[in-house]
């Protein structure tokens, strides 16, 4: 069995966190289980270190993540009086949204903690670890480094384990990605032993969706096309009109890649103010992150995305041609 080394946070990051009194932690727009899990976990670790962390995200916590304890502590309007900003799971500053306004926080040190290979290194101090399966996995190692020496081997309270496992289950899609290695599975065993409810987490993160979302899938799937190995759908504003403002058909892009004939899947979502959000998935051996990065987005070789201007069907036509080369 290959033995992947534990992840080691850099000293500069430990210094900045140790020195903080009132850190502002920010998770990315349209938060997923890794964003919210990492935010709550790092917040809990810093709190137990005697700090006064502020947890923030511009968008609300999705309903299927509200089973997590203390999501009510996440605010879209954080206080001004903070001394350090920490960006979580965000590959570039635009992912932080309006919560992070350069004018307001730009004089403060900015720590970037992320696992996206396309991270643009926009902070003062960076810990970018593409080998990590999730940002929450990195936060575990931060806890082990910062909190364990203070409070002993039982540092990982049940809540922390739940947050971290939620991030890992989300980003590995239930331990199915190639980032799920022996190091990750050993950590998962420790998280379950510490009381993280694996069944609840997998059910909420992977299997729970609203009836409106199922109706949206029905509409979006009527646009499905297969172009020489690239399967794609479009998700227009008109389809969502009566469905309470849903923007993303979430795991639909992974579902599409289940087509035996496809090696790349794409969902093209028309956003309210015009641009098209593009979400890509690829089978191993292909790389959609380079195209996403070229178009101003980012991600991982097998899962990436970007937002581009244009009419949604034209964007699909143009990008499907490019995706065939990925
Ligand atoms: Mn992530």
Summarize the structure.
By secondary structure, this protein is of the alpha/beta class.
Question: What does this molecule look like?
Answer:
This protein is an alpha/beta fold and 326 residues long. The protein folds into two domains: 11-206, inorganic pyrophosphatase (n-terminal core) (Alpha-Beta Complex); 211-323, Diaminopimelate Epimerase, Chain A, domain 1 (Roll), CATH 3.10.310.30. The chain contains 13 helices and twelve strands. It has helices spanning 11-19, 33-48, 102-105, 135-146, 148-151, 158-171, 182-193, 198-207, 211-221, 237-240, 252-257, 289-294, 312-323; strands at 23-27, 54-56, 74-75, 84-88, 110-114, 125-128, 225-227, 230-235, 264-270, 276-282, 298-300, 303-308. The strands form two sheets. The protein has a six-stranded parallel beta sheet. It has a six-stranded mixed beta sheet with strand order 7-8-9-10-12-11, with helices on both faces. Strand 7 and strand 8 (230-235) form a beta hairpin. Helix 4 (135-146) runs antiparallel to helix 6 (158-171). The longest helix is centred in the first third of the chain and has 16 residues, at 33-48. The radius of gyration is 19 Å and the shape is globular. The chain starts with 10 loop residues before the first helix and ends with a helix. The structure holds manganese (II) ion. Manganese (II) ion (MN) is lined by residues 34, 89, 115, 134-135, 171.
């Amino acid at each position: 069995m290959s033995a992947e080394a534990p992840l080691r946070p850099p000293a500069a990051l430990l210094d900045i966190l140790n020195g903080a009194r009132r850190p502002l932690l920010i998770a990315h727009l349209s938060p997923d289980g890794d964003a919210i899990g990492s935010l709550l976990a790092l917040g809990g670790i810093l709190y137990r270190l005697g700090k006064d962390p502020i947890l923030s995200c511009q968008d609300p916590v999705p309903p299927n993540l509200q089973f997590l304890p203390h999501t009510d502590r996440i605010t879209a309007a954080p206080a001004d009086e903070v001394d350090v900003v920490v960006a979580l799971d965000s590959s570039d500053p635009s992912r932080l949204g309006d919560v992070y306004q350069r004018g307001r926080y730009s004089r403060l040190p900015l720590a970037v903690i992320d696992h996206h290979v396309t991270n643009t290194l926009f902070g003062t101090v960076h810990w970018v670890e593409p080998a990590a399966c999730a940002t929450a996995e990195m936060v575990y190692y931060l806890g082990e480094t910062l909190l364990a020496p203070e409070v002993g081997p039982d540092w990982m309270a049940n809540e922390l384990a739940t947050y971290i496992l939620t991030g890992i289950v989300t980003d590995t899609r239930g331990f199915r990605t190639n980032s799920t290695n022996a190091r990750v599975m050993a950590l998962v065993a420790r998280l379950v032993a510490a009381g993280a409810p694996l069944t609840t987490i997998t059910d909420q993160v992977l299997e729970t969706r609203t009836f409106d979302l199922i109706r949206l899938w029905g509409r979006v799937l009527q646009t499905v096309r297969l172009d020489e190995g690239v399967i794609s759908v479009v998700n227009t504003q008109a389809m969502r009109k009566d469905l309470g403002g849903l923007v993303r058909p979430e795991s639909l892009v992974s579902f599409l890649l289940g087509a035996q004939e496809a090696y790349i899947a794409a969902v093209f979502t028309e956003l309210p103010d015009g641009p098209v959000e593009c979400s890509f998935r690829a089978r191993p051996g292909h790389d959609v992150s380079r195209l996403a990065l070229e178009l101003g987005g980012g991600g991982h070789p097998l899962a990436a995305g970007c937002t581009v201007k244009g009419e949604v069907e034209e964007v699909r036509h143009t990008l499907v041609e490019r995706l065939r080369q990925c």
